[in-house]
Amino acid sequence: MPEPLQKSEIDSKTDPSVAKQYDHDTPKSEQIDDFYKTVDKLGVGLLTTMRQGLGPVSRSMAIGKRNGPDFLFIANKHSKKFSDLEHDNTVEITFQNSSTQDWVSISGTATTVSNEDPRIKEIYNPGLSAWFGDLGDGVHTGTAEDPRMSLIEVQPKYISYWKSTVTTLGFVKEVGLGALTGQVANTGVQREFTEEDIKQMRHTQG
Questions:
Q1: What is the pLDDT of residues 162-193, one digit of tens each?
Q2: Which of 159, 40, 49, 46 has its CA nearest to residue 112?
Q3: pTM of the model
Q4: What pairs with residue 44 in β-bridges?
Q5: How far from 102 is each of 68, 96, 184, CA to CA, in Å?
């Protein structure tokens, strides 16, 4: 149910939507499991890099593999995202479920790895060749051995996500009631993982 806005939230310059939905109760292990389930189910997100003289640039990317909180993406080393990362390795990955409104925001750094990395063969699937093409020279084949095929590995430093706790109808009713009564809608839980949390997640990879 919507909750009343408190004067103390105004005085302390608190965002009531975040404060009232912040999850203080769910065990961290369950929060981590929910995070993994969310990103694994969605599979495709926006990878944002920083471009010199322009700022953030995003593009849709499918997860190649997730190792605990870390992500691997296969990409064409001729794409501009690689030159972006040469100048600034700061990245963000975002996911959103348009049905439930669940979202995930991941901030971190990325490293790029050449085609010699054996993990490319582990992740590669034939469907990837459609994005690379085959030149017919026996080298640029769009296969795992193609020298253009490279890895981007993202290591998060901060993760935040929001998980819906109501149905689609419940979401509409909650927001409508909040707007009518002047109260703050409460439709889900807001969670975050600090850099220390993420280090622990790497030791207990799910």
A1: 999 998 888 888 889 889 999 888 899 999 99
A2: 49
A3: 0.91
A4: 62
A5: 20, 6, 18
Mean pLDDT, rounded, of the chain? 94
Kindly state the average pLDDT of the residues 122-151: 96
C-alpha span between 145 and 163 (Å, rounded): 40
Those residues with Cβ within 8 angstroms of residue 63's Cβ, 6 or more apart along the chain or in another chain? 39, 40, 43, 44, 45, 71, 72, 73
**Structure tokens given for 152:** 């981007």
State the DSSP code for 22: B
Cα angle at 160 between 154 and 164, to 5 degrees?
125
pLDDT per position as a tens digit, 30-55: 999 999 999 999 999 999 999 999 99
Backbone angles phi, psi at 157, to 5 degrees: -115, -20
Long-range (24+ apart) CB contacts under 8 A made by 81-89 are 81/47, 81/49, 81/57, 81/152, 82/112, 82/150, 82/152, 84/49, 84/50, 84/51, 84/52, 84/57, 85/49, 85/110, 85/112, 85/152, 87/50, 87/52, 88/49, 88/50, 88/52
Rounded CA separation 168/57 (Å): 31
Phi and psi angles of residue 46, each rounded to the nearest 5 degrees, phi first: -100, 125
- Output b/e per residue, 182-204; b: 16+ Cβ within 10 A: ebbbbbbbbbebeeebbeebeee
Give Dmax over CA atoms of the chain in angstroms: 70
